[in-house]
Amino acid sequence: MPCHWDYRNLRRLLERESFPAMIVDLDCLDENISNISKNISKTDKKIRIATKSIRVPDIIKYIQKKGGSNFQGLMCYSMEEAKFLSSLGFDDLLIAYPTFSFNDIEIFFSLTQAGNNIVLMVDCIDHVKAIERFWTRFSSDNNYKARVCMDVDMSYRPAGLHLGVYRSPIRTFEQFKELFEKMRGIENIEISGIMGYEAQIAGMGEKNPFSPMLNPAKWFIKYMSVRDVYKKRQVIHEYLKEENFKIDFYNGGGSGSQLSTAEEPWITEVTVGSGFLQSHLFDYYKDNKSVPAFCFALQVTRNPEPGFYTCKSGGFIASGETSLDKSPVPFLPEGMKMVSNEGFGEVQTPVKYNDSEEIYLGDPLFFRSAKAGEIAEHFQEYILIRNNEIIERVPTYRGLNFCFY
To answer: Which tens digit of pLDDT belongs to each residue from 162-182?
Structure first.
């Protein structure tokens, strides 16, 4: 059945539900998985799922199964999360962020010794030495090396400006080469992969309705940055080729840059997360064709005056730079508008509505979050629907009593 959201049907489905409630339409999710898979598989690249943008094990598993051979592994955002996912049978786990935690490195060591395919991110020699000290102290078997991935900065810096995020200090090829050569000489370390994440492309929508005057500048920055990133990743690839050094993977991309990243011949895998569920921030990318696959419901508990309906609960503001586009947006019924001087409140959320649907106390109203993953921290479960019927309920990390940082 094609993806289709219908307010009256959703209202019927949630008659006896508690609120807030999160709904995932599997028909829409299937459409997104299929489109993303087709686009990236044309370039013979694999897709790595970004777990931080989902945080629901059953949905991660569903996407992997539905995507089949086009999908390869997960990108986790913490070592504790990787340990948890490993206990559920997931493997090929890339930890996206470095760590200095003794407990994290101990988990990394244990998972490696147990035969798990797990790789930890590094971007400086201090990261490497922290891992190497643990391995030297506890490993008596050199067959078990610490597999690491080098995180190379892909920010765009025209005329001294910094356009991107502050992640890796490896900003030039010379810095990459220096660290790479130091790491090659460390016995317990195996360089398994390279990651170059182009946040200023993947994380900046050039059709943002909340800042329309900036959209032409965003388009130009992204256009120039795509060319810049291409060259940076190419130089590293050519160096590794000259050195006859083989890596297991070369990772790049995000939901907002999946197409441009996949076109680079040296990239072996593209990370995608938010594009599967399609939170509203990703509507504002020219090349992103995903459809909304999830939304949350708040219940109308007050009717303060005609045309105004106040829902219990709210909030769910996304992280990042504070701006209007980090708030959820009205979804169903169509025609709802937020009350500007209140917005999404901690305990109540008022909306304006004077359209065709009759709204009564107790009815649900539906909204879309700005980001796809972190909102899962507010819900115990997601309600899955297909063919306009509830078919299953699946727990989030929170619903399984886990919270990862």
So the answer is: 877 889 999 999 999 999 999
Chain centroid to CA 229: how far?
A: 20
Q: Distance (Å, rounded) from C-alpha 368 to C-alpha 344?
A: 12
Q: What value does the mean pLDDT of the chain take?
A: 91
Give percent helix, percent strand, percent coil of the chain, each to the nearest 5: 35, 25, 40
Contact 37, 70 (CB under 8 A): yes
Residues 201 and 260: their CA atoms lie apart, in Å, by: 9
Instruction: Count the neighbouring beta carbons within 10 Å of the beta carbon of residue 247.
Output: 17
Phi, psi of 260 (to 5 degrees): -65, -35
Phi, psi (rounded to 5 degrees) for 363: -70, 150
Tens-digit pLDDT profile for residues 185-209: 898 999 999 999 887 776 666 666 6
CA 339, chain centre distance (Å):
29
- The answer to whether 38 and 292 have CB atoms below 8 angstroms apart is no
Helix segments in 139-198, DSSP class H: 173-184
d(CA 195, CA 254): 12
CA end-to-end span of the chain: 38
Dihedral-angle region of residue 6 (phi above 0 means left; psi in -120 to 50 means alpha; beta otherwise) = beta
pTM score:
0.94
- Write the DSSP assignment of 230-262 as a string of letters: HHHHHHHHHHHHHTT---SEEEE--TTTHHHHH
Structural tokens at position 35: 């489109």
**What are the structure tokens assigned to 327, written together?**
């708030």
Q: Of 6-20, 72-86, 131-145, where does mean pLDDT reach its minimum?
A: 131-145
Beta-carbon-side half-sphere exposure of residue 352 (alpha carbons within 13 Å):
7
CATH architecture of 26-276: Alpha-Beta Barrel (3.20)
194 contacts: CB under 8 Å, gap ≥ 6: 149, 150, 152, 236, 240, 247, 249, 250, 251
Say if residues 149 and 121 touch (Cβ distance below 8 Å).
Answer: yes
